[in-house]
Amino acid sequence: MRLWTWVQRLQPAVPAASVSFRGASLHGKISGEIRRQGVMGSIPRFMVFLVSVLMLSGCAHTAARTGEVPGGGGRPERQSAVRRFAAGTGAGSACVRDNKTGLTWVKSPDVTMRTWFAALAYVKSLDLCGYSDWRVPTVAELQSLVNEDEADTHKWLDDPAQGFSNVQPGNYWSSDTLPKRVGVAWGVNMQNGTQGNFGKPNILFVWPVRGRR
Prior knowledge:
By secondary structure, the protein is an alpha+beta fold. It contains 6 helices and 7 strands.
């Protein structure tokens, strides 16, 4: 009988999750199974050893693929997950840090719509969470908040799991002015994630940010 046929027949009898990665232990399990089937005399010892090696490789591959802990009853290994947005506490409770970009955002941006110049003045006057270096974000920084897997980014951001509130389904000013068009600046729509350019006298929302440039 071909060796691989024996490996396939023995696989259900020696499940990966219950096998120790010590070669001697696995070799003993396979030898015992062959004896149970009453065919030990027809298989040379070196073949039994070779089957053990093949089974050991298969178990290691299965454990790596499924995350099972060898000998652990099939329980998946615990993996630590770093939450992207971290809401502040105490004096910093009005702010949320984005662990992906290193930026800190106002947790609940107000809903007052302002011209571009009024937005710059408002953000510059902020003293929040112990910081006074707030600014209007760049278009790239605003875009970093957009989740392309969500139909409505503002609803996703407003979910308690993200930590924000009061995000509006509208356009937010960026600090970026269009080249050769000093009267026009970029904005990002927080509902669908699209970018647009708007004359600076228009009124849009503003979302203060601080940190990396």
